[in-house]
Amino acid sequence: MRYSDVSIASPPVQRPYLEPDRNNAHRPGAWHRNMHRWIVPYLMGELKKSLRKPVQGRLHVMFCVADHFEPYTRGASPGQAEKRLKRWTTNLPLLAEGIVGSDGKPYRHTFFYPREQYSRTMLNRLAEICRAGLAEVEIHLHHDNAASEELRADLLHFKRFLRQGHGLLSADKNTGEVKYAFIHGNWALDNSRPDGRYCGVNNELIILKETGCYADFTLPSAPSATQTAKINSIYYAKDNPRRPRSHNTGIDVRTGAGPHGDLLLIQGPLALDWKARKKGILPGIENAEIGGGRPPTIRRFDLWKRQHISVAGRPEWIFIKVHCHGALEKNADMFFQGEMRLFLQHLVGHARRSGFSLHFVTAREMYNIIKAAEAGENGDPGAYRDYVLV
User: Alpha-carbon distance 315 to 59, whole Å?
Assistant: First the structure.
């Protein structure tokens, strides 16, 4: 389907391929699903961690919540979708009040808003809380059996509309080019599902780069079959337009080295959780998803931190990206009925007691700090929140 200026201003249409509730690794019987795609790299990573020398100097942890924010999901009516959004615009200021990191910066949220659920009213309200400094908006997209040029036109159109119509997204401070972060619906980045569903575009990484995507934040996706062999990494992937799943491997971002390939991917933590065993025997899978029935805890945070996702050559800066589907009622309950605020309060205290610096960042700020590390910058990473994109 092509989107015209008329359709982008029309009410969003619920489609059968909109992202379902996650096939969560903590559900019974799901722990082993598609584990063969990533377990060997994970075990090798565990071995490397056991041999790694302790990090010298003060540790800094960047913490980002990437929200697949889908107010119309599960067939919600416009009224229900507006109620979901109002809950966030009303309660996010209360959640963030008094929650500040080690650098004095407050908690901030990143909404990845789906193109196919576009609503002028919704985006205007999100823009208001962005202008208040509480959040930023990036691009989320679900599609199926798409054509390359259709995808390109759609992304450019939506990017332009978000910027010109709502004052959202960021720009390169040197070139002025409007840029965006991306999360793929149904985890199917670069046509990575074995059955070819929920994408259809083998050159998606190239298209994302050429339309202004500064980084992809889709992964991890375990236990989905879209999960890559490359895990717990910040890396560049080079697209092969003749084949799907080009981001299955890549080149790690490294201090002093430049960009490589077509697209930067910023992954969240993926690990075995031996303290959340199934039937008392099998380890759970920690995929950094938070929500109702799966709230963040300091124990989970320590497991995320232990994966040590960082830029090669700058191990004292750790990047933790967790994700959620915040519009769903059960997940919003977790955010706004006390569990998330209690976690954030405990996390601030945990950082102080444990002797590391905590930085609450948006997806854009995380990217900027990564680029600063790549360029060889050091010291306080909080100084580089606007390093490239503003």
Answer: 8
